[in-house]
Amino acid sequence: MKDHLYSTSDLHKGYDELLHKFIQNPKVDDRNFDLAVWYHDTGHTAAAVSFYIRTAERTSDRLLQYECLLRASMCFNAQGSRGNSVKGLLQHAVALFPERPEAYFFLSRYYEQEGEWFDSYTLASIGVSTSDDHPALRTDVGYPGKFGTIFEKAVSAWWCGLCDESIKLFKELITEYPLDKLHRDAVENNLRRLNVWDDSYSDKKNLGELRTPETFSSNMKTVDDEIRNMDRDLIVYKKETGTKLKVTFPKSNKIERNYSEAFQDIFVLLATNGKRNGTFVEVGTGYSVYGNNTYLLEKEFDWNGISLDVVEEFVDRYNHNRTSKGLLKDATTVDYSELFKASGLPENIDYLQLDCEPPSVTYKALENIPFDEYKFAVITYEHDYYSDSDKIYRTLSRKLLTNNGYKLIVGNVSPREGVIFEDWWVHPDLVDIDRLKDITMTESDEVVANSLFLEKSNNIPNWKSTEYPTLEITTTIPKNGCAVDCAFCPQRVLVQSYNGKKSLTFDEFKTVIDKLPREIRITFAGFTEPWLHKECTDMLLYAHSQGHKITVFTTGIGMNPEDVDRLKDIPYAGDPNGGFVLHLPDQEMIAKHPITEKYLKVLDKFAEHAGSIQNFRLMSMGELHEKVRDIFPQPGESAMWSRAGNLNREVILKPELLNLTDRFRSIYHGPEPHTCGCEEKLYHNVLLPNGDVSLCCMDYGLEQILGNLFESEYDDIMPKPFSCFDLCNYCENAVKPELTKENL
To answer: Which of 370, 298, 359 is nearest to 334 (CA)?
Structure first.
């Protein structure tokens, strides 16, 4: 097939832009599809499915319908335990476009994973008979090419008793198709187990095709793409997460993150004592950033060098993203002496990486290095012991390097348990070995790399004790309080207690959101109506674009109909205390909504979209006001409480409450310490416009200020689990701390 029209990274643009285009005309196919892919890329698979289905239902483009079905199946597959949904969507895709191969491949793989071998074999057989010569899909759906379907046929054929056909297909794959590493390793292992492997299959003519860029790079076109995928796939050091490095060297405290698959970059810097302006030779370029061993050295420590690979696209991308030089060279035959001289490298080079595929090729490259002319301070050698069926190249490489004067520092390195793939060496003439004594491990059967470099931490963030950590946003606190001034809302207490700036700026809001872990749910409610701030919609869209779950409690006062259009397609989180809750005016005017013509238009717009807004709910303090009864049905009434005693204080300041004291409940638990019994526990906090964070939505008197997010980090101001506060003794949701611990 031809190249995809665009990669998913092309769609990974600002959410506001995509949503704005969608709102302008929500019936346009492309705009629905672009939003679906954005949600898919950012991990919001439920919302992505919704928009894929919207697109498929609305478009007359059969190819786009087909692609939406494939991508929706990908979303359900990622969610797990949705096998029937995955199968149903793929079956629909086959019926819709039976001449294309992708759906057959995925459906055959689905049946293979379920152990339904005859169904898998049947689908793969049909898929193999289709042509790959079709118009390109818009995005990469993960179809590797015809060899992927042949592989599924070969596997299922074996289990169906068609052993000769299975062997024939595996041989065909290894000799006639450019396989990616995953499939090549699997095919080789299968042929070896069946005792039909021929060493001629490893001839040089196949080596340049062991990694196909069409398969591995289509969703990693940019540096940001590579970093995003790396954070998903690899265990790395990231200062922002609170993890700490065990090792230190000059400027180690300045490192924000590393990039290697198994901390090779940190090992090199430790061995060279944080050297600046070092030199490297990278044999096996691979990705320019993702799992790359030299990106940190170059980016933060000003190293330079050369990188070799046999895949042209890897080299091209390396030269696009890096300042060092990528070269299209065969590591097993290149004249390194001439290459090093031409590249201006010194006789003592700081770092040599050897990482080719399969292990036999890496060893050939090692044999080709002119160790009699050049020394390397540090060498990381990938022997891929876990996938080396002969189990010989680790031994051979150790003998060669030892004979050339190198000392093994860490053997049998693994990026994760069960994947022993690498040895780390240094030359005693160039490295102070005493510096490495704390990590030297040469006799271990396996050394998982992160255990060498990351501190074991029991410092789980306090807010992790709940599944629903939440930060409410108080966008503004006007001088006289909220314009709605609900009788049951302690606005006088709030205004008397707050002496900070009136409104949160959009830039300040973004600063706070950028500090927060993505698990923190953002609720637009706070101590006043959030849309009294003219930029509240922009704030909500920004928080959503950064990956946070969103909930809303609003009267709609301050909104325009355009705000509703911009907000209606956000996938609002559900309970506890979630959804999009619209507080409607009541006939008694307990909540004093200014019911203007503009406000009624806003309510009309909400009514228009009520069926499509996720987790949309209504509430009122009593019988609906006569002006809105023809817009919405009567919602149920909510029980009123004293807001942890703050309404009792409000009675003194708001005389109308004297006639309503029988309409809200109060409680006092006594003097024994109490803590929060809500599902959010102590982590449903409220941001104020001046950056202060109040303990919870009951704290209108602002008695429990935890800290300030303009000045501090979120984790640093969160209280310890089961902490007790005086406020809790007056709250209907409070419990004794031992009861909460028992629930845990």
So the answer is: 370
Beta strand 407-414 pairing with 447-448: parallel
Q: How confident is the model at residue 666 (pLDDT cuts 50, 70, 90)?
A: confident
Question: How many angstroms separate the Cα of 511 from the Cα of each of 11, 107, 263, 439, 507?
Answer: 25, 45, 31, 39, 6
Structure tokens given for 521:
């749910």
Backbone angles phi, psi at 605, to 5 degrees: -65, -40
| Residue pair 279/350 in contact by the 8 Å Cβ criterion | yes
- CA–CA gap between residue 677 and residue 684 (Å, rounded): 11
Q: In degrees to the nearest 10, what's the CA dihedral of 645, 647, 651, 655?
A: -170
Q: Are 477 and 494 in contact (CB under 8 A)?
A: yes
Calpha distance 89→73 (Å, rounded):
6
Phi, psi of 283 (to 5 degrees): -95, 105
What is d(CA 626, CA 585) in angstroms, rounded to the nearest whole number? Answer: 9
The answer to whether 305 and 275 have CB atoms below 8 angstroms apart is no
Structure tokens at 682: 């102590």
Min mean pLDDT across 113-117, 125-129, 705-709 is at 113-117
Positions of E strands within 252-335:
279-283, 304-309, 325-328
Are 460 and 716 a contacting pair, CB within 8 Å? no
In angstroms, the CA 45 to CA 34 distance is 14
Residues 6 or more apart whose CB falls under 8 angstroms from that of 106 comprise 70, 73, 90, 143
Name the H helices within 234-294: 264-271
Where does residue 417 rank: exposed (0-12), middle (13-18), buried (19+ CB within 10 A)?
exposed
Cα-based distances in Å from 113 to 110, 403, 456, 523: 5, 47, 36, 41
Instruction: Using alpha carbons, select from 84, 107, 109, 83 the residue that is nearest to residue 95.
Output: 107
Encode 638-677: b = buried (16+ Cβ within 10 Å), e = exposed. Answer: eebbbbbbbbbbbbeebeebeebeeebeeeeeeeebbbbb
Residue written as tokens 């002006």?
627
Burial class (CB in 10 A: 0-12, 13-18, 19+), 473: buried
Q: What is the pLDDT of residue 741?
A: 43
DSSP 445-485: S-EEHHHHHB-------GGGGSS--EEEE--B--TT--SS-
Report the pLDDT value the prediction gives residue 104, as an integer from 0 to 100: 96
Q: Amino acid identity, residue 447?
A: V
Rounded Cα gap, residues 256 and 526, in angstroms: 34
Q: Give the pLDDT of residue 221.
A: 59
Amino acid at 227: I
Query: Mean pLDDT over residues 145-152, rounded?
Result: 92
Count of H-run helices and E-run strands, the chain = 29, 20
d(CA 376, CA 357): 22
Q: Output the 3-class SS for 553-587.
A: EECCCCCCHHHHHHHCCCCCCCCCCCCEEEEECEC
Within 10 angstroms of residue 437's Cβ, the number of other Cβ atoms is 9
Per residue in 201-249, pLDDT (tens digit) is: 665 333 333 333 333 333 455 777 667 666 655 678 888 777 788 999 9
pLDDT digits (tens, 9 = 90+) for 309-366: 987 878 998 999 999 999 999 999 999 999 999 999 999 999 999 998 778 899 999 9
Count how many Cα atoms sit within 13 Å of the Cα of residue 28 in the half-sphere of its side chain: 12
CB of 341 closer than 8 Å to CB of 275: no
pLDDT(744) > 50: no
Residues of the chain with pLDDT > 90, as a percent, come to 54
User: What is the residue type of 34?
Assistant: D
In the chain, how long is the greatest CA-to-CA distance?
96
Helix (H) or strand (E) holding 632: none
**Which of 192-201, 256-265, 383-392, 642-651 comes out lowest in average pLDDT?**
192-201
